[in-house]
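Service request form, structural biology core

Requester: graduate student, group of Dr. S.
Request type: structure prediction, single chain
Budget code: on file
Notes: please return the result as structure tokens.

Sequence provided:
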Amino acid sequence: MGKESFIYNVTVKVAAGIGNEWLQWLQKEHIPEVTATGCFSHAIVLHLFEMDDGESCTYAIQYYTDSIKNQERYIAQFANGLRQKSFDRWGDKFVAFRTFMKVVN
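Core staff response, request fulfilled:
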């Protein structure tokens, strides 16, 4: 039996006016900060292009880990600080929701 895998999925709706700048920040700053915690092995970014409405763009960022404990440690030790940095930088120009999923296949 192989190792279990889990995905911490963050879906973000971003105001269209900051979309490109936000995406660069996400890829160059935020994702490296999240993975530097040691809680996740890597991340991928997906554009939910069917959700675009002219006023916003929607992305899903999927962080991969092999342990529920890593995700719990991330939430307990790092999530609040990194979320606050996002709010400090972008204010109310984005909304996000988070889900934690187990890979079954």
